[in-house]
Amino acid sequence: MIIAGNLKCNHTRASFQNYAMALNDGLRDICHNFTLLDNIQNFNSNKANFNSIIVFPPSVAFVEASACKYFSQGAQNFYPCDSGSFTGEVGANMLDEFGVNVVLIGHSERRGLGENDELIKAKFNFAKQKGYKIIFCVGEDDITYMNASAKEFLSDELSGIDLNYEKLIIAYEPIFAIGTGVSAKTQYIAEILEYLRSLSNAPLLYGGSVNCQNINEISSLKHCDGVLVGSASWDVQNFINLINIATKDQK
Ligand code: 13P
C-alpha cells in the first residue's frame, strides 16, 4: 500500500525536522519492510508486500536525503526547469540537492491557484524526462459530481499525459471531499477507481478526508492501492497511527 501525506502549507523547517525523526522512529517500530518509492516499477508484481510512505513537506522544509530512512520525501510543487529566471519557483536542481524525485502534479489546490492544463502538462513531461515518480491528482468539483459527469471530467484531466509512464501514480481526490472531514462514499470511490483502472495500470490512490476511522474501509476497496492524506498527516503521531491501522493486518 502507498500512503502519502500532503503537509500543504504547514510545518516549518524546524518542525519538519522533528516530524521526520518521529516518523522514522514510528515506522521502525511498526516493523514492516517499508519500501522506498524508488522501486515503484515493482508495485504491480508485489502489491501484497509493498508498503511505501511518502511525505510532501513545504519545499523550504526539506530535510537532507539521509534523514529519510523509511519514507520518501516529495515535492508539492516545482517549476519545469532546472534553474533560471522564474521568480519564486523551485527547479529540479533544488529538488536534486535534497534527493527529491517524487512530485505531486495537478492538485486541485494548485489548479485553484491558477495552474492550467498547459502548465500541468509541461510539468508532467519535464518530470517524466527527469525520471521522477509522479503522483498525478485528478478530481471533480461538487457540481460535476451532482451532474453525474465525473468520468468525462476525469478523463479530460488525464488527457495529454502518458498513462503508461512506469513511474506514474494517479490520485483521485474529489474536491468536495478535501478538507471537509467527510470522505466520498466508498461505493462511489470504488466506481471511480474502477473507471480509472480501465484507463491505466498505474497504482491508484484515493484522497479526501482520509483519517484513522475510514482508512481501512477505503484502502480495502478493490482498485485502491493507497491513500493521499492531508490534514490527518499533519500531526506526525496521528499519521503514524493511521499507517499502523492501515498496515496492521500484514503483521
Ligand atoms: P484532506 O485529507 O485534509 O481532506 O486533504 C486531502 C488532500 O488534499 C491531499 O492531497
CATH topology-level name: TIM Barrel
Q: Identify the overall geometry.
A: globular
Point out poorly predicted stretches: none
Main CATH class: Alpha Beta
How many helices? The count is: 9
Which cofactors or ions or other ligands sit in this model? 1,3-dihydroxyacetonephosphate
Structural class, by secondary structure, is: alpha/beta
Strand ordering within the main sheet: 3-2-1-8-7-6-5-4
Largest sheet: 8 strands, parallel
Average of per-residue pLDDT values? 95
- The name of the CATH superfamily reads Aldolase class I
**Rg for CA atoms:** 17 Å
Percent of residues in helices comes to 25-40%
What is the terminal-to-terminal distance?
Answer: 14 Å
Return the CATH architecture. Answer: Alpha-Beta Barrel
Number of strand elements: 8
Percentage of residues in strands? 5-15%
| Domain count | 1
Oligomer: single chain
Q: Order of helices and strands, N to C?
A: EHEEHEHHEHHEHEHEH
